[in-house]
């Protein structure tokens, strides 16, 4: 990672111009994050003067992305393709992508919708059902375009009604085949029992499904997607490195559940798993900024039309693709861990999946930019995360040498 500093224009934290105030909940110091500023005034001033204004990092990948199809796909794909080299494409379309043949077709649709000259690579996934066969896993492995299988507990989230109801029964032969074929299982880690409190669903899933699954099939590679709790961090840390990992979204790093109710009900920060309390957010920030190889970038960018978010029964999902990289950088900067950013965004993911790291670079400049209020598409509009606010880190392609 290259870091460029510009001492003449560097401002100390309290001198930064306030732009349109983004209501981030400023992280208080997570327990394991070490700040490298000295308490001696002279040294501290020096450190302030060397705050980076520009970072050059290996191009990141997004290990959890919803692209949808049709007009929405065309509208959102350029935002991911601009910043990310590859992305794991989630299969929860209507109807879901349950076969390799359909994954191959969907991949073609994505490639066709890419902006000219883009080298973005969609890494396809299959949607696990009670009827998925071990044969399908062999086909997936052979295809060279399917990289994982997604477990949605039936009823857990958007378009999950065809998901799994019987993981340790009907699905077991498939999971055993995945372990043999080294195809990772990507997990939406929430139980769907209506008697379990919404805020406890991840923990109960870990205790009743995930921990027993890891015990039963220790060779199966598992990614716990979009983790939201200290319990998930503890679980991931307790497993063998390289076997169980986790993706982390910008919203679960920057927001706690108060954001859902700040000044009124806020549909655009409603996602699943739902935002949790502050102590959980701090645990996740601490985990990802520690430099651990078990965590990697997965935006869970999940576009829904404005009218389907702002209504009496709004959809779960936050559209973060255009802002995600700026937001992750902010998180690492505020934790004093910018030196750990590149491993999280660009190394840990491909290393876990056994894929090469990207070779191209992307530049992040400290240069305020305004998030558009909405993105229009052929039949509606999508409101991005932090709509209309000003963010500090602007990602762009590397300058020509
Ligand atoms: N995260 C969300 O709230 N929604 C996702 C599905 C998912 O990953 O849960 C979606 O597809 O809209």
From TrEMBL:
One Pfam family, short name: Amidohydro_1
One of its GO biological process terms is: 'de novo' UMP biosynthetic process
* Keyword tags: Hydrolase, Metal-binding, Pyrimidine biosynthesis, Zinc
EC? 3.5.2.3
User: Can you tell me which residues the record assigns to a coiled coil?
Assistant: none
**Domain of life here?**
Eukaryota
Composition bias, Polar residues: 1-12
Enzyme class label: hydrolase
May I have one GO cellular component term? chloroplast
Give the family per the record: Belongs to the metallo-dependent hydrolases superfamily. DHOase family. Class II DHOase subfamily.
Q: What is this protein called?
A: Dihydroorotase, mitochondrial
């Amino acid at each position: 990672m290259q870091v460029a500093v510009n001492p003449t224009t560097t401002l100390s934290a309290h001198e930064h111009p306030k732009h349109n105030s983004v209501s981030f909940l400023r992280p208080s110091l997570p327990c394991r994050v070490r700040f490298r500023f000295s308490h001696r005034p002279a040294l501290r001033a020096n450190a302030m003067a060397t705050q980076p204004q520009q970072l050059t990092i290996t191009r990141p990948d997004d290990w959890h992305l919803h692209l949808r199809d049709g007009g929405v796909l065309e509208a959102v794909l350029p935002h991911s393709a601009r910043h990310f080299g590859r992305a794991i494409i989630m299969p929860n379309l209507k109807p879901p992508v349950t076969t390799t043949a359909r994954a191959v077709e969907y991949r073609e649709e994505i490639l066709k919708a890419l902006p000219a000259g883009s080298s973005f690579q969609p890494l396809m996934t299959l949607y696990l059902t009670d009827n998925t066969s071990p044969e399908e896993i062999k086909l997936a492995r052979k295809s060279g375009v399917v990289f994982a299988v997604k477990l949605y507990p039936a009823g857990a989230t958007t378009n999950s009604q065809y998901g799994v109801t019987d993981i340790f029964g009907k699905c077991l032969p498939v999971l055993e085949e995945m372990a043999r074929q080294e195809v990772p299982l990507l997990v939406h880690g929430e139980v769907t029992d209506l008697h379990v409190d919404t805020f406890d669903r991840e923990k109960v899933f870990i205790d009743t499904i995930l921990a027993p699954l890891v015990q039963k099939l220790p060779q199966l590679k598992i990614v716990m997607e979009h983790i939201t709790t200290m319990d998930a961090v503890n679980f991931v840390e307790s497993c063998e490195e390289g076997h169980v990992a986790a993706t982390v979204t910008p919203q679960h790093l920057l927001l706690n559940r108060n954001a859902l109710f700040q000044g009124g009900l806020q549909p655009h920060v409603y996602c699943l798993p739902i935002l949790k309390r502050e102590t959980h957010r701090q645990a996740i920030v601490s985990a990802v900024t520690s430099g651990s190889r078990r965590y990697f970038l997965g935006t869970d960018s999940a576009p829904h039309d404005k009218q389907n978010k702002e209504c009496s029964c709004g959809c779960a999902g936050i559209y973060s693709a255009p802002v995600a990289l700026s937001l992750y950088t902010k998180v690492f900067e505020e934790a004093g861990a910018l030196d750990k950013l590149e491993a999280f965004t660009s190394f840990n993911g491909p290393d876990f999946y056994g894929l090469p790291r990207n070779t191209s670079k992307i530049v992040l400049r400290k240069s305020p930019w305004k998030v558009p209020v909405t993105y229009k598409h052929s039949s509606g509009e999508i409101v991005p995360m932090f709509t209309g606010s000003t963010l500090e880190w602007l990602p762009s392609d590397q300058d020509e040498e």
